């Protein structure tokens, strides 16, 4: 699997997790993933990657998201942490 294919696979799994947990971040990440997939040239692809990475910084960012239910933080939050970290690593690995 190429780096780009791995990034797409992680995006799909992450969006599914976010949507399943009714997170508004699901739509945001899906839209950013769509921008990456539709990038027509290397410049657009790099711009889309940088846009994705921009959601990781600052207060109230994607990095701050916690998935929890009335029972507290559960296994979906562990999966979120794993996928979020993987996506960041994959995206930064593709930045030129």
Structural category is: mainly alpha
Helix coverage percent: 55-70%
Low-confidence stretches: none
Assembly context of the chains:
single chain
Main beta sheet strand tally, sense and closure: 2 strands, antiparallel
Label the overall shape.
elongated
How many E strands?
A: 2
Please report the distance between the alpha carbons of the first and last residues.
Answer: 20 Å
Strand order of the largest sheet: 1-2
Query: What gyration radius follows from the Cα positions, in whole Å?
Result: 13 Å
The proportion of residues in beta strands is under 5%
The SSE string, one letter per element, is HHHEEH
Describe this structure as you would to a colleague.
By secondary structure, the chain is mainly alpha-helical. It has one domain (3-94). Helices cover 67% and strands 4% of the residues. It contains four helices and two strands; from the N terminus they run αααββα. It has helices at 3-20, 25-38, 42-53, 75-94; strands at residues 68-69, 72-73. Strands 1-2 form a two-stranded antiparallel sheet. α1 (3-20) packs antiparallel against α2 (25-38), α1 packs antiparallel against α4 (75-94) and α2 packs antiparallel against α3. The longest helix has 20 residues, at 75-94. The mean pLDDT is 96.
